[in-house]
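Honest question from a wet-lab person: if I give you the sequences of every part of a complex, can you actually get the arrangement of the whole thing, not just the pieces? Trying it with mine:
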Amino acid sequence: MAEKEYQRLTAMTGVAFVSRSSLWLGKDHLLSIDSNGYAETYKRFYFRDIQEITFMATRRRFIWNWFLGAPAAVFLALLLGSLPYKGSAGPNSNLGEIVLFGFLTAICVLPFLINNLLGPTCICHLRTAVQTEVLSSLNRLRRARKTLNRIRPFIAAAQGALSPEEIPARMRAAILSPAEATTATGASPVPPPATDRPDAPPVLS
Amino acid sequence: MSVSLIQCPACQAWLLEGVFSQTQMSPCPACGVRLQVEVFPALFHSRSIGRSSETIIVEGESSCFYHPQKKAVVPCQGCGRFLCALCDCELNGQHFCPACLDAGKNRGKIKSLENQRTLYDSIALSLAIYPLLIFYFTLVTAPMSLYVALRYWKAPRSIVRRTKIRFVAAIILALLQIGGWCALFVTLAIHHF
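Yes, you can. This is the full assembly:
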């Protein structure tokens, strides 16, 4: 059997018929697919071009927990209240209410459980030299980390590896003077200090 | 070397250390939002400057098809025309002229340039399924579904693996619906006359 051109990294996430996204692993690139069900838009991120991937924690899970948990608690209370107890007219006196509140509780509890089982939420940004894109299919931290672990070897194969200690030194070198940069990193001089330039970014002290 | 620094996505503050390539999330020094930043060597690569085409000095040198006064450096692998450094568009190790690149994209011949596809199989299946909710619509939508399925049978489907099962299901459902309507009309005709 011929080798598949793309391997699935994430399942479709998002709202059906509006916008759903998925991420696929290609030979030399990541393929992000945005779909509304009837058309697909593709974005390719070549491993050699990926500069940075950022996960930012969000409060979406917390918000959904409130949004689903509060009605679930109310319906559960109503369900418990409608259950037959000693001295009530009969075991099936509130059957309609039990079914209704049981159904409503299940509607809220099920997504509540799924929301918590999927783990913390995040937003993933992928940056190249010319763009910063949000990968909306990586909206859960656990899934995002799993995906990152899967693609890291491919990026390392395309670009080489970079140790975590090396990064701050290189960052500093980018904003220090050429002489200081040479002293700090032992690397070749960098362009004039960014802080002297009128368009230089603000620097955290 | 032109290194662009990394910003916190929440507060846009420049990040210098503490959050890079950690296994766990770390707070942004400015706003405290929890971040995990994975940095790759491409961030520190110098940006290559685009090549400029050379002017022909020696008479008789092969020239660019689009710029006759410029020196040809490579032939287009689509049409064979000679191209100068300015007109040479490299894609996955192949060299194309802008016209071939455009044609390849429009005709879907260069797969890596495709950025959109219409999913006719999903359209056909939707036309066969959703109108069943209001059955009368199927009188119109069933033939439409059949037409879409047959017309676009060979059209490219999703770029990732996808079978023709949707087309097959749409055709079967559409034929069943058309058959049902035919049976209804025949029955009505028999009763009427």
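Two things worth pointing out. The mean pLDDT of chain B is 86. Chain B is about 30% helix and 15% strand.
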